[in-house]
Design goal:
Number of strands: 3
Shape: elongated
Oligomer: single chain
Number of helices: 4
Strand content: 5-15%
Radius of gyration: 23 Å
Largest sheet: 3 strands, mixed
Order of helices and strands: HHEEHEH
Bound molecules: zinc ion
Helix content: 40-55%
Low-confidence stretches: none
Mean pLDDT: 82
Length: 130
């Protein structure tokens, strides 16, 4: 009588499909959404919030309604109105994780600028002021 389990046909195979299943429970480097923010990340978000205030003050009077962010998850641009962007950053700061995307509803792309554009504009305005 043989009680031995049948030999695993994939025992020495690095492509063993069962290995994939086990790996699913490992918190990989991409799975750190629930990790608390590092001090550095917190400082970055706080700096982003401060930048955002400046951008809005400078750009809103010129008809810019918010920023367009290239989303790496969706691989498409998302349009965020100032308030939405600010509340998303605050949420990230409080909760340590980003919100599910809540892009603006049928935005007009001509009313949004990229973060880099806003920063360049703010830098130019501040330089002109000095
Ligand atoms: Zn997205």
């Amino acid at each position: 009588m043989r009680d031995d389990p049948p030999l695993d046909p994939f025992a020495d195979d690095p492509g063993d499909p069962a290995a994939e299943l086990g790996r699913g429970f490992d918190p990989g480097p991409d799975d750190d959404a629930l990790e608390p923010l590092t001090a550095e990340e917190e400082a970055e978000i706080t700096a982003d919030l401060a930048d955002l205030e400046v951008f809005q003050v400078l750009l809103e009077p010129r008809g810019v309604r918010g920023l367009v962010v290239d989303c790496q998850d969706c691989e498409e641009p998302h349009y965020f109105a100032w308030d939405l962007l600010r509340s998303n950053l605050r949420h990230l700061l409080d909760e340590g994780q980003a919100r599910v995307h809540e892009p603006a509803f049928s935005p007009d792309p001509s009313e949004y600028v990229s973060w880099d554009y806003a920063r360049g504009y703010a830098d130019a305005m501040i330089a002109a002021d000095e």
